[in-house]
Amino acid sequence: MNDTFDEALELLRGTGSEVAGGVAPNHGPMAAEALVVLGRDDIVVAWADRYRRKLNAMRPSRSPITTKDWDKRLGRGAGSH
User: Fold this and answer.
1) Rounded CA gap, 60 and 80, in Å?
2) CA angle 52, 58, 63 (to 5 degrees)
3) pTM over 0.85, yes/no
4) CA 58 – CA 74 distance, rounded (Å)
5) 10 in the Ramachandran plot: left (φ > 0), alpha (ψ -120 to 50) or beta?
6) CB 26 within 8 A of CB 12
7) 81 CB burial (10 A radius; 0-12, 13-18, 19+)
8) pLDDT digits (tens, 9 = 90+) for 8-51
């Protein structure tokens, strides 16, 4: 597509569905392509870098979910049922 898109894809390399334990797709490459198509080459690389850092922070925990922490593990705080 163009050099900017290639740079964004390089930043997103290795951030596929394995980040979410293989159950969720990574929409980063599609979003980067959409930004380029919309003429926003000026922001796509910075956006891809921020998105990659967020994905890295979301790597799944390998510890078992228990009856005491299941709600927090689903992203809900206590009492938000």
Assistant:
1) 22
2) 150
3) no
4) 13
5) alpha
6) yes
7) exposed
8) 999 998 877 655 555 667 789 999 999 999 999 999 999 999 99
